[in-house]
Amino acid sequence: MILVTGATGQLGSKAIDHLLKRGIASSEIIALVRDTAKSEALRGKGVETRVGDYANDDSLVQAFSGVDKLLLVSSNDRQAIENRTAHHINVIKAAKEANVKHIVYTSFVRKPDFENSAISVFQNSHVESEAFLINSGIDYTILQNGIYLEMLPVFLGEKVVEKGTILFPARNGKASYVLREELAEAAAHILATDGHQNKLYQLTNTASVSFYDIATEITNVTGKEISYQSPPVEEFESMLKSFGVPDQYIGMFSMWAVALSQNTMDADDSTLEQFLGRKPTTMKQFIDQVYANAHSEIISQV
User: Rounded to two decimals, what is the model's pTM?
Assistant: First the structure.
């Protein structure tokens, strides 16, 4: 039996879809959910749903009964980072009590000097979770996933084509962006195949790109000149504040921009390509898909 946590979320739900595509019977898959009202689609696929909460130990132990392999999708708790670490540890403890044999944990890409990065607190949450899992005595596979390609439109803003400018204080920093769905596909591959016990895999793309590269590609696909400017962080934050962006999100944007400027996520690797059996989706392919409609709209206005 394979149990997937965060099963109604973006990564967990896609991992279940890829398990089914690989021929794993729906009767061998369990989806852990917090709210059964959101799990109708999973039940429609014949997947059993069990209710469990990362903060409720008893619910987890009960939900993990009879489970052999468990995909621990890292917590997306929006409160203190410490909550995420506690959630992960709760899951690992409950899995051990329920005699789960193997945990696959979705961590985050990390470089040797991560302690000095703008996302060091976020990274430490994963470091502590990984260490607890490794020392738990349960077979583990740690997936150090790259930053999602899907974050690019968030960083770029909704009106990037209309304005013709990318304003983001990432300087010339590069990152190896990867499609979330392909990370889910890789997780399904690991759950469905043998030989991954006590392994750590870095799942990133095979090339890193900067926002200069991204601006060039949006220019190419839309036919409209898009420039990239990296203002000082303080100026960027003041600009967001003037637009009415909540402080919580201003801090998040600044944190990730600075981390990108530090090349914290500039780590190319071919492991994901090996698991997929093909080249991962590139930044160019992703940008072409997302902004193809913008090109059509520009043409229609000419």
Answer: 0.94
